[in-house]
Amino acid sequence: MEARSQLRHRPTGALPSIIVHNMTREQAWQILCEFTRSENLRKHALAVEACLRAYARRFGEDEEKWAVTALLHDFDWEIHPQAPDHPLKGEAILAERGVPEDIRRAILAHATYTGVPRDSLLAKALFACDELTGLITAVAYVMPSKSIHEVQVSSVKKKMKDKAFARSVNRDDIRQGAEELGIGLDEHIEFCLRAMQERADELGLAGAPKS
Question: What range does the domain containing 154 cover?
């Protein structure tokens, strides 16, 4: 959750609300905005959503459910920033809001200290994309153009080795996440990078405006 950029409005191009197991993408976005004032955190949720949507399409899974999970995975970070309150107390809030159990379980499982196993493809994908999106965003910020379109897989891997860069990003989680998905690290980085590039404008990563 490193180096998340600003969000000034509801993301353009957001897909229309579709009912997904008693929760819609619109409802998930409303919950996120209710509990999260940080524009950077909202951007992070959108970055994870971009990646999970792409993986859902790749695996033939429910794209809307995966989008809801992405938007809600850190919704309680501002009110419960310490482990194990996050995401345990947040999960209780989501249960009260009617968020389905499989989504809540995946959210719990993305924090390794909860002890909840990542026994679903959704949980594995969320875990795999969470830290990686933060690293990719941080790499985009140090590009001369400030654009994610300038970022390459080699750029991300180089910064991944630099422990002083984006220190809060857990490199081990990124590696383990790719392994749990059964995807090579380079392929995983490229897949998420491309998914984020497709939504560069929404993520504030299209580059600095030309003077």
Answer: 25-200
